[in-house]
Design a protein that fits this description.
The chain has 202 residues and is an alpha/beta fold. The protein contains four helices and nine strands, in the order H-E-E-E-E-E-H-E-H-E-E-E-H.
């Protein structure tokens, strides 16, 4: 695979073609499994063509339904995390929002990888998504779980491009309102992570 070339491929399959330790860091936000929900205290699936807040469900043409069974979603994400750790020499910044369709898996990931988590950051989007139902809180933040190699008992980063006491683990960055994709990263978010936690010229 070539540097500075975009490959339109399944990310997991693409990573499997990369050698160990070939990138310095990974910044990612996986699908959130939004089409798995709870009705009558049971997991159910949104159906193709069903609408959610004006968006068609299961509209992807690549076969991704965003509606995996919870255990399947958990296993898939563990595969991805393992590959991201394998191909990187530094940290993996894993942005995820705990929603109904992934909440159990996200908290299970925190336990499974407890010894590989350097920090958990909060992305404060500075504007809440309205609650999807009654008795549910509006959602204004997402996690950025920072996976790292080696001994993660402490919170000290190996690369830290900031003066002591000047950088918080809460990143207050507004949502991207200029993109047709409603959940697109604001560019400042990955820029900040790359700037503060990777080597110059890395």
């Amino acid at each position: 695979m070539e540097i500075d070339k975009i490959y339109n491929t399944d990310c997991l399959e693409g990573m499997r073609n990369l050698p160990d330790g070939c990138v310095e860091a990974v910044i990612t936000s996986p699908p959130y499994n939004l089409c798995l929900r709870v009705r009558g205290n049971q997991y159910t699936h949104r159906t193709k063509g069903e609408e959610r807040k004006g968006l068609n469900v299961n509209k992807y043409t690549n076969g991704l339904s965003d509606s995996l069974e919870m255990e399947d979603y958990f296993s898939w994400q563990c595969e991805c995390i393992d590959e991201m750790l394998r191909v990187s020499t530094g940290m993996v910044f894993y942005n995820i929002q705990a929603v109904t369709g992934n909440k159990w898996a996200v908290f299970k990931i925190l336990g499974k990888y407890a010894d590989r988590i350097r920090e958990v950051m909060i992305w404060d989007k500075m504007g809440a998504e309205p609650a999807v139902g009654n008795r549910i809180l509006n959602s204004e933040y997402e996690f950025i779980i920072v996976f790292d190699h080696g001994d993660c008992k402490g919170r000290q980063f190996s690369v830290f491009n900031a003066e002591r006491g000047t950088l918080s683990n809460v990143l207050r960055i507004g949502k991207n309102h200029e993109n047709k994709h409603r959940a697109a990263f604001p560019l400042l978010l990955p820029q900040m992570l790359a700037h503060h936690f990777t080597r110059r010229g890395g």
